[in-house]
Amino acid sequence: MAVRPVVEQTKGLYFITFTCCQWLPLIEITNGYDTIYKWFDYLKSKNHFVKGYVIMPNHLHVLMEFSSSEKSINTIVSNGKRFIAYELVKRLQEGRKNEVLENWRQH
Predict the structure, then answer these.
(1) Interior angle at CA 104, CA 79 and CA 31, nearest 5
(2) What is the pLDDT along the chain (107 residues), one digit of tens a residue?
(3) Which residues contact 57 (CB under 8 A, 6 or more apart)?
(4) How many structural domains compose the chain?
(5) CA distance 19 to 12
(6) Is there a domain that residue 3 lies in?
(7) Is residue 1 part of a domain?
(8) Residue 18 in contact with residue 34, Cβ under 8 Å?
(9) CA-based radius of gyration for the chain
(10) CA-to-CA distance for 70 and 18, rounded, in angstroms?
(11) Angle, vertex CA 13, rays to CA 35 and CA 1, nearest 5
(12) Kind plus residue range of the DSSP H or E element containing 36
């Protein structure tokens, strides 16, 4: 079961993990590693820093230091997940990986 605590603070050091739908190796299938690096670059431009990370074929672990921001940490992370997800879906569509998309839509 996923744990989604609401983080009231706007800065601090956090360990974050998120996974692909149904634990499918979507990062590997789409070669989407660069998408995650783009999100890291965006975070850095907003003065948030990745202290460590592990990118697996189907999930991501990040040790992230957040600076003060108008946006909540939950919003920053959810926007990043959305950005990555849209890019992975786009790549699945471009690569004609319709069977993966159909399996995902059924759940």
Answers:
(1) 65
(2) 455 666 666 789 999 999 998 899 999 999 999 999 999 999 999 999 999 999 999 999 999 999 988 888 999 999 999 999 999 999 999 988 888 877 766 65
(3) 25, 26, 27, 28, 29
(4) 1
(5) 22
(6) no
(7) no
(8) no
(9) 14
(10) 23
(11) 70
(12) helix 33-45
